[in-house]
Specification:
Length: 384
């Protein structure tokens, strides 16, 4: 995630902000520029941009911004339609929670906030991203549902481009209780979004393509009975040595879950490294034996080895800072060599998709970068 500033006073602002804390200017995200803009009221429901790329341009607030205050998206005035206009991010939501329950508005806000960050990262990586309205067969859509009064539970999951999220995951206490009961080191709302969209991109980028056989070599055969694998996992738990091959215990359930967990982890890495680079974060310790971080290569130009070389010192610093605050490790993972192989595979699939070459499993050389479509055999023991 890049850094953002208020166009009026140059105060640093966050991607989620609606107003500048220093000058009180109205803020909003404009996907056409990929930036936060400051605005001044232009009357008649319109807002005048103060951004240097669009000085004086008129915008309207997304309906979920103006009426519901769960969004901060802005729409060019000439594209807006009175009373029924949603920003690009909100167009991906098909079903919202029942707002007659007061707490559901907060949960909806949290869900939309995480979803917007997910969509930002997917767009920055150049992945194919369309709504169901734009592509009924391959489009992506979200629905946010709650458990029924009769006790029928809503399962968070993915089904042919439709991602269902149980809104209970937006309740911090519920999510933490679930994390502890399942012995998980990490459970976040954004992590759920990244995991479920991984299933979507398996269908879009791997299934039925030339990536499928290399996928099976790396993750296993996805044709194994999923229901049986899931039942076995919950009955017996993961294998004692799961960490030697998988990024999480849940990843050991089935190759589909291994892919989705690894995909989510890759997005964690890319977004965090990108944010650190945007903030100019470097590590220059006095001792040469301590982790060093000086590489500021943009993530979309970085090789996989560059990303991993930056990731380890960054997580060391992150965990050290958290411990100084008396908080759990921000990154409670270790990555075994086979897990790094899988992350490298995800990187290459995304690299190919970013160039529109999702079937390009090259037989020769080529650079391993997000900006090119080269694909390679997965090495047995990649650099760590």
């Amino acid at each position: 995630m890049k850094t953002f500033h208020c166009d009026h006073c140059n105060q640093l602002v966050f991607f989620e902000n609606e107003r500048c804390e220093r000058c009180n200017s109205r803020l909003g995200y404009v996907p056409q520029s990929g930036d936060m803009h400051a605005f001044e009221d232009a009357g008649d429901g319109r807002w005048r941009s103060l951004h240097p790329q669009t000085p004086g341009a008129l915008f309207r607030q997304c309906n979920n911004y103006a009426l519901e205050n769960v969004c901060n998206g802005m729409i060019p005035d000439d594209e807006a339609h009175a009373n029924d206009t949603l920003c690009r991010a909100c167009q991906f939501t098909r079903t919202i929670p029942n707002l007659t329950r007061a707490e559901n508005r907060l949960y909806w806000y949290r869900l939309e906030t995480s979803k917007r960050r997910l969509l930002y990262t997917l767009g920055a990586l150049g992945l194919p991203l369309v709504t169901r309205a734009e592509d009924p067969e391959h489009g992506l859509q979200f629905e946010f549902l709650e458990d029924m009064a009769d006790g029928q539970a809503v399962l968070t999951g993915h089904d042919h481009g439709l991602i269902t999220m149980n809104i209970a995951e937006a309740d911090d206490a519920h999510r933490e209780t679930t994390r502890v009961s399942l012995h998980e080191p990490y459970r976040t709302l954004l992590g759920h979004f990244r995991h479920e969209v991984g299933h979507y991109y398996f269908d879009r980028l791997v299934a039925g393509t030339r990536w499928l056989e290399p996928f099976r070599q790396c993750f296993g055969d996805e044709r194994a009975d999923y229901a049986e694998a899931l039942a076995t996992h919950y009955a017996n738990g993961p294998a004692p040595d799961w960490a030697e091959r998988h990024v999480s215990a849940y990843a050991s359930v089935h190759p589909w879950e291994d892919w989705a967990e690894t995909w989510a982890h890759y997005l964690h890495i890319v977004d965090t490294v990108d944010t650190a680079a945007a903030c100019g974060l470097t590590l220059l310790p006095a001792s040469p034996d301590e982790p060093v971080l000086t590489d500021q290569t943009p993530v979309d130009e970085a090789s996989f080895d560059s990303l991993m070389a930056r990731w380890f010192p960054l997580t060391y610093a992150l965990n050290s800072l958290n411990r100084s605050l008396g908080m759990p490790d921000g990154y409670p993972f270790t990555l075994a060599s086979p897990v790094i192989d899988k992350l490298r595979f995800v990187h290459r699939v995304i690299s190919a998709a970013a160039r529109g070459a999702d079937d390009a499993l090259a037989s020769g050389g080529g650079r391993d970068r997000l900006g090119d479509g080269g694909a390679h055999e997965i090495p047995a023991d990649p650099p760590r």
